[in-house]
Amino acid sequence: MTATIGPGAPEQPIDILACAPVGEPAPAPRRWPTIPSISVVIPALNEEENIPHVLATIPRALLEAEGCEVEVIVVDNLSHDRTAEVARELGATVVLQAARGYGNAYHAGFAAARGEVIVTGDADCTYPFDAIPELLDVFSRRSLDFLNTNRLQPTNRGAMKPSHTIGNLLLTLTSRSLFPGPFRDSQSGMWVFRRRIWSHLDVRSGGMAFSQEIKNEAWLKGFRCAEVPIEYRKRGGVVKLNAFRDGTRNVSQLAAHRLRADRRKRLIRPLPSSAKPVVDPAGPAH
């Protein structure tokens, strides 16, 4: 841009940046430029005592200060206590799902979610919602579609019963033998994924098998998947998991899913002969 300064003076270039108002610094770059909003979806069944602590660990102010809009959804799965009322009083959006089941709760929660990215976790105080910013760092930096978390670390041994640890390891081994993706903890309930991929996933489980199915389905459909270790904490309240019943159903689901995937081979990428887990070099989230 040029301008004339005084009568007959030659045209001089004007530095437009120099004309910017003094004292108005340029806005700081956003920490997660591709993540304008997130929905934190939490299934809950009789978690009246735990839900206040769980919601308090979500770093909402920090996320919003970084330019990320936050929506918190608690899916009440026909609780007999005041789970829904307490969650609502604490500012969460409450979705009621009368059909009991872990997967059924998530189906309802995902249908209600509006964030560009969905973050999940249980309402029993075990998952580190305070690590969401670090998980988003990995998710954004690596341009992922689906990020799983791995609880099965030596430092977490005290938070899980030995029988549950063994069961998780066996289920993961079975899952990896059928779906050689990057997941070393097939049963982890904390994931980060882009909401747009949900409509492309054929996830049918209404129970605990939902957790392994959504991971394997995301990988089968060719979305960018990875896994990072996390801190896993002791559960608050009563354990609802039935190890034998849920484990048996999970194995059955894995077999059915593998058969289903084989029937639609023309729609999915070929399975690699071997696959190494994708572990983020940044290490565990805390």
UniProtKB/TrEMBL annotation:
InterPro entries: Glyco_trans_2-like, Glycosyltransferase_2, Nucleotide-diphossugar_trans. Keywords: Transferase. Residues 39-197 form the Glycosyltransferase 2-like domain. Belongs to the glycosyltransferase 2 family. It holds the Pfam family Glycos_transf_2. It comes from Pseudonocardia thermophila. This is Glycosyltransferase involved in cell wall bisynthesis. The keyword Transferase applies. It comes from the Bacteria. GO terms for molecular function: transferase activity. Signal peptide: none annotated.
